[in-house]
Amino acid sequence: MTALAKLNGVASNPAGVAACYNIPSYDNVTGAFQADLRLYQISPPASSWATLIHQGVSVGLTFPNGTMAAQQSSKIIKRDDSMLSWPPIRHIVGRKIVERASSPQLLSNMTLAGQVGTGMMSYYKDPIKMKTALMPIIILSAKSQNGSVTNTTISSTEASFVTGVFSSSSSVSQAGFILPGTKLGIFPTGLIITGTWTVLFVLTIGWGTMHRIKFREAYRRRMRRGLNMGLRTM
To answer: Any idea what the Cα angle at residue 210 is, between residues 208 and 216, rounded to 5°?
Structure first.
């Protein structure tokens, strides 16, 4: 809610809706990710959106840099006009101006799964570039009283990446995804000792085997010489 509060109740679209978009998980090796999209009503709708049939409102998503599908989603919740006093409405009590506390109303919540295209392979390990590449295009559509459809684009950058992989508090957002098991967490003292003993064992066995081979070859040469001398004597 802190990120939405910074908008001061000013939406970038006539529907008065703001999007909160976060990436809970992201694999910089395969480009697969999960996303969480929440739409909030932060201000009363303006212009023609104030008279639109609310039951006809739908959310459309376009992901230019790959594929994206909804795993779980909730329908647009019916708007409660009593909750649209955002930012807090100022009213006068005596000679003091008092602000009435309020909060944005959650309209829709969607869990998404996506895959970044292979053409964005060079962006996989760059968190700054990937934040831009993972942004979807959000389109809000609604049906008017005469049956015509009105569309508006919802900005996905106003309150995004406040939690999850690319948030400022996440170490992964700075270093990227780290594949488990590729680095040692402690100094490998046991590995060094075991490796040293293994090398000494292999050298000892190899040295003994080499001398046994030499002894066998020398024995065979002596036997051949002895046979040759016996044949000559006869």
So the answer is: 100
Amino acid at 140: L
* Closest residue by Cα to residue 116 from 33, 22, 52: 33
In this prediction the pTM is 0.57
| CA 118 from centroid of its chain's CA atoms | 16
Alpha helices (H) along 149-188: 172-175
How far is Cα 21 from Cα 38, in angstroms, rounded to an integer? 7
Average pLDDT, the chain: 76
Sign of torsion, CA 108 111 113 116? positive
CA angle 27, 22, 8 (to 5 degrees): 160
Whether 175 has a pLDDT exceeding 60, the answer reads no
Q: What is the pLDDT of residues 41-89, one digit of tens each?
A: 888 888 778 777 555 678 888 888 888 888 776 655 444 443 333 334 4
Long-range contacts of 45-51 (CB under 8 A, 24+ apart): 45/14, 45/15, 45/16, 46/14, 46/16, 47/14, 48/14, 48/144, 48/150, 49/14, 49/15, 49/16, 49/142, 49/150, 49/152, 51/144, 51/145
